[in-house]
Amino acid sequence: MRFFHALIIPLALLAIWQAASLSGTVSPYLLPAPEQVLRSGITLVQSGVLGRHVAASLSRIAVGFSLSIALGFLCAGVLFRWPLLDKLLSGPFSFLRMTPPLALTPLLILWLGIEDATQIAIILLASFFPIYLNTRTGLGCLDSSFRELAASLHLSRTRRVLCFLIPAAIPSILTGLRLSFGYSWRALIAAELIAAGSGLGYMIMDAEQMQRADEVIVGILVIGVLGWLLDALFTRLASALLARRFPEVKEL
After folding, report:
1. Domain spanning 53-197: CATH 3.40.50.720
2. Cα angle vertex 11, ends 10, 15, to 5°?
3. Mean pLDDT of 185-200
């Protein structure tokens, strides 16, 4: 039922779009009819063009997001363990966190060119801090009673981390991962609009230069649907994990 509720507004917008196209109030050059966009999408799929661009974007997001997870967890653990290092890095981290990744794009292009390295770097800059900050916060959420219990059991540091610290941080970590993925997906598309030779963002930019509004809309719809599906998949997996660890939690 929830899935059908989520389709109500998109279907209503589609009906308005179709009505505007049939009435002629909007130029077909600016807003092609839904059937024209559908035909363009089918053509792009059959030619393999859409598949190549989707694969390029997904491969970049996989690499960049994986790097963000690894570095975010590593930095959160290290700085939680050594508070002095946390204080020393607070200034540089705040500077990077408040600097939009796209503002660094010209410099990244000079350093890395317009190949995958630039897009991956932008993904990393966009998605690192939600993971790092939420993990860092989660690691500090362990209740003092559990700390006393761990001490009374004379557990080693490793067992304290695995049995108490990480489980207590899981809800915050999952929230950070979900936020981070959204940031990384949007940053990737923006980066592909500026500096890329493939990917969904590049496809949109190329279609705009060719004055193909129908292909631009196809690209936008694919980006939105893919992001929606990936977020829904992550939410389902995260909710299942939370339900196992915290039975009272139904969904993320």
Report:
1. no
2. 120
3. 88
